[in-house]
Amino acid sequence: MFIKQISLMTIISGSLIATSCNSAGKKAEESTDSVATTAAPQPYGHVDGQEVLQYTLTNANGIVVKVLNYGGVITDIITPDRDGNKGNIVLSYDSLAGYLQKGNPYFGTLVGRYGNRIAKATFQLDGQTYKLAANDHGNTLHGGMKGFDKVVWKATPQPGDSSLVLEYTSKDGEEGYPGNLQVQVTYTLTADNALKIEYAATTDKATPVNLTQHTYFNLSAGKDANILDHVLQLNASNYTPVDDLLIPTGKISPVKGTPMDFTAAKKIGQDIGKVKGGYDHNWVFDKQGFDTVGSLYHEASGRYMTMATSEPAVQFYSGNFLDGSLDYTRDGAKYVQHAGMCLEAQHFPDSPNQPSFPNTILKPGERYTQTTVYQFGVK
Ligand code: GLA
């Protein structure tokens, strides 16, 4: 069965069951007349006077994903290796203090209103100049000083323990962005071992929107100190070259013949030494629309992950700034350089200032959506 937790909370059916749209949810609906059960979220501390809770998603195969309503943080993705030994394949802390520490590099968080960088923390829209919080060498990074990673979201678990809906309203002017932005993110652990992340947003004024997820993967589940032995493949023939502050130059360049080429599966460590600072770039996918875009494989454990997304690009960040100095790490782990890596499905960095890049402006009456699926397995 799906429900392994000792403490169970009962949810009266009503609209929750009526809106259930996943297979686990359907099972719950079939197996009960008007009542579904779900695991009770666990207390995880307080932020801004609000309670932080940890929610657990499970599937019939024993995969576990744990999520906080703070920042939409994914604290755990627990999957088996090829011998069936389970482990957490994401970098994480042992408590909320870790996530609140200064310099926490977005472990597991949702990112918004605009993931990645906006040059000089400013952009123009409809003849107006907007000033954003400059939190990265004069540029704005990941939504500013207090982005979507640092706020408490309203969390609504769906029946059947496999899906969690998070909602947040970002106020007009927050971090300098125009418009009240209503955001909804749904995490679903599917029956076939995928974590599906669906984002939606609407606004009452035109505004840039670029939502993503900042989980650091290490498929060895703590066995390897870094991800340099992981094998990455990306269906991306191009990337966006950047300046020293990681702002795109505006060019879209072929990866062929460069260390950026992951069109054929390649160990991350193979060419990383040829890239100043390591990988922290935006790869442009070849596909249009929602499709599979790549894979990650860790041979020693047998774990692999495929990625599919609706987004035109991904920021592959190889954990370059990790230096072993973070406190409250899970099990006292030393997260040294390259201890984990992010595959942040997204639009191109600095799009609001780059007219040739795909549009990131959401207007009133429109609906922003993005879907990214990470599927886990062994071979
Ligand atoms: C992103 C950026 C990196 C770094 C990390 C957080 O992925 O691209 O440069 O800022 O977030 O440390």
SSE inventory with pairings:
Elements: E1 8-12, H1 14-18, H2 23-31, E2 35-39, E3 42-47, E4 50-58, E5 64-68, E6 74-80, E7 86-88, H3 96-100, E8 110-111, E9 117-118, E10 122-125, E11 128-131, E12 140-141, E13 154-157, E14 163-170, E15 181-189, E16 194-203, E17 207-208, E18 212-213, E19 231-234, E20 238-240, E21 253-254, E22 266-267, H4 268-271, E23 280-284, E24 291-297, E25 303-309, E26 313-317, E27 342-346, E28 361-362, E29 368-378
The chain binds alpha-D-galactopyranose.
Structural class: mainly beta
Give the names of the bound compounds: alpha-D-galactopyranose
Strand order of the largest sheet: 13-14-15-16-29-25-24-19-22
CATH class: Mainly Beta
Could you name the CATH topology?
Beta-galactosidase, Chain A, domain 5
Q: Which value, in Å, is the CA radius of gyration?
A: 20 Å
The general outline is globular
**Mean pLDDT metric:** 91
| Annotation, overall tally of beta strands | 29
Ends: how far apart? 25 Å
Count of spatially separate domains: 1
Number of helices: 4
* Content of β-strand: 35-45%
Task: Give a short synopsis of this structure.
By secondary structure, the protein is mostly beta strands. Helices cover 6% and strands 37% of the residues.
